[in-house]
Amino acid sequence: MGIPCRHVTSRCSSFGLWKALSTIDPMNLMKTPLFGSLLALLMMGFAPDAGAQQFMTREGHVHFFSSTPIEDIEADNRQMSGLLDASTGDFVFQVQMRAFHFEKALMEEHFNESYVESETHPKATFQGSIASWENIPNDGMRHDVVAEGEFDIHGVTQPQRIEGTMQWMDGAWNLQANFEVTLADHNIVIPAVVKDNISPVIAIDVEAQLMPR
Asked: What is the CATH code of the structural domain delimited by 52-212?
């Protein structure tokens, strides 16, 4: 697979279809015959000679960390899915909240039932674009990037600016990023009885390898 062409202009945006895809469970989507057709439709949104490509992951790693004087709490989710439009820098990422796993089973239960209310709000999404994407070279070096978009968790959407790095290596885009989420910004309420155990601001680390599709 050659290095993707990124210095082209889309004739019509496929991002609306990406938004629709973000509502579908990626694990189920990948198993359906419709998956190939949907990817074909995505690519039809670009000029035939543009060489536009979509890059995808469904095994991204999200780690979050809460630190207080009483205790540290952390969890891992290794099922982040995402799509990147290599001609524009547009993206959408999604995580299923129930895929976060904790050291303590009781904390995992409280996280899903009382804090993020996973039954009602099953996923978190980040949708937007990478700033100055056309200036990021495919030279095998790690480059600083800024992703700007809308971050939705617990049913509340907020603008989000995330700093990270991207590197083109072995035919894939490797990304790393870290940012913070303020629980109150997304109406996530911590019960008074444990409010000293959980930080009001959660640190998030993300790693993913986006492969061509």
From this structure: 2.40.128.110
